[in-house]
Specification:
The complex is a heterodimer. Chain A is mainly α. Chain A has 2 domains: about 1-40, no CATH class; about 45-225, Four Helix Bundle (Hemerythrin (Met), subunit A). Chain A contains 7 helices and no strands. The longest helix of chain A has about 35 residues, at about 160-190. Chain A is elongated. By secondary structure, chain B is mainly alpha-helical. Chain B has 2 domains: about 15-85; about 85-130. Chain B has 5 helices and no strands. In chain B, helix 2 runs antiparallel to helix 3 (about 60-80). The longest helix of chain B is centred in the C-terminal third of the chain and has 31 residues, at about 90-120. The termini of chain B are far apart. The chains are: A mainly alpha, B mainly alpha. Chains A and B meet through helix 1, helix 2, helix 4 and helix 7 of A and helix 1, helix 2, helix 3 and helix 4 of B.
Chain lengths: ~230, ~130
């Protein structure tokens, strides 16, 4: 078995990439990104940063679950006011969903461009991601303004309080994400693909994709189920 | 190849979202994102359109929507965040599993308990509505 492993290790070692550490610990030269045992030493800073940020994202999702729970419990408590059926406009939600999904896609293309170390395309895709995010936010603010103008603000009923808290919290995340995106574009412009900039880009990409995952739960539970489909 | 992955206790980790994760798999690079976008669009479109078509039995629509949403989150995790079941990704998957557990406890637990209380604290008007 160990012979086959070493062989496989050499096969990958030729490309300098050895995802399963097959060449590691068998005299295969080690890998500087190996886990904390063997000759490779502890995991690289990029992996530790990515993992730490992943933990943060999961705790952010746990926080959102609190808002989701509150909404699920209070969804029926309209206090005689308007409910989801009267308030929600699905065409707008569909456009918002498409914008955010596309922005997740362009964000992914940006990370591929980063992997290929193309500053130009990384900036282009980051810009596209940001513009789609801004368009999403504009539609959401429009919806909020319209609802408040109709007298369906957060103070109207428990249902609306929970709605504004949940959807507003997601919108706030998108807003912060757009600020972060602008910062990353500027930093990439000035500093180029330094190791720390690459780590920040990795974290930003994770953040943006996580926002889209939360939106999937949000449009399903709040808008599609709420409009009494 | 794949049996060596599991037999070999000595393995690398990969950061979530790392492009390098899928280099040896068909989901790598632009193609992976394109497949993810196509699948996610399909599921989103289904979630928005299916309930209006009458193809799904009315009372089952909420369950169908939840299933579609969970499927789409899976698509996002695999194709966009590169959280896969590869052996270099175990730490990320375990953290995700813990997150899912907490989310399920918070959401399902709240709904369950609050529904229970709701039944016990029913006003006469609610009672009449339930009886009808």
């Amino acid at each position: 078995m160990s012979g086959a492993t070493a062989q496989a290790g050499r096969q990958h070692g030729a490309r300098g990439h050895d995802p399963y550490a097959l060449g590691h610990g068998h005299g295969g030269g080690g890998d500087h990104e190996a886990t904390g045992h063997g000759e490779g030493g502890p995991a690289s800073k990029r992996i530790i940063t990515g993992y730490g940020f992943w933990i943060f994202l999961l705790s952010d999702i746990v926080m959102f679950s609190g808002f989701f729970a509150a909404y699920a419990v209070l969804a029926g408590e309209t206090a005689g006011g308007p409910g989801g059926r009267e308030l929600f406009e699905l065409p707008r939600v569909a456009i918002e969903t498409a914008l955010l999904l596309l922005s997740s896609f362009t964000c992914g293309l940006g990370s591929v461009a980063t992997e290929r170390r193309s500053v130009f395309w990384t900036q282009i895709w980051l810009l596209a991601t940001g513009l789609l995010g801004v368009a999403f936010l504009v539609l959401e603010v429009q919806e909020f303004v319209q609802m408040v103008a109709e007298g369906a603000g957060p103070q109207r009923s428990a249902f609306l309080s929970a709605f504004f808290a949940l959807v507003g919290c997601h919108g706030l995340h998108v807003g912060v994400g757009i600020l972060w995106l602008g910062t990353m574009m500027a930093q990439l412009w000035v500093k180029g693909f330094r190791a720390d900039i690459l780590r920040r880009l990795l974290c930003f990409n994770l953040f943006w994709h996580a926002l889209d995952i939360i939106w999937v739960a949000l449009f399903t539970i709040v808008y599609l189920l709420g409009s009494g489909a | 190849m794949s049996d060596h992955k599991r037999l070999d206790g000595d393995r690398n980790d990969s950061a979530p979202g790392d492009e390098g994760v899928n280099t040896h798999e068909p989901l790598s690079g632009v193609k992976g994102y394109a497949i993810g976008l196509a699948l996610a669009s399909l599921l989103t479109a289904a979630a928005f359109i299916l309930p209006g078509t009458g193809l799904i039995w009315g009372p089952a629509i909420p369950a169908a929507l939840v299933v579609l949403a969970i499927a789409q989150m899976g698509i996002h995790l695999v194709f966009f965040l590169h959280i896969t079941t590869g052996s270099d990704n175990q730490n990320n998957v375990i953290a995700l599993a813990f997150g899912v557990l907490i989310v399920a406890l918070v959401v399902l637990g709240s709904v369950w308990i609050m529904n229970h209380l709701h039944h016990q604290l029913m006003t006469p008007a609610d009672m009449m509505r339930m009886m009808r």
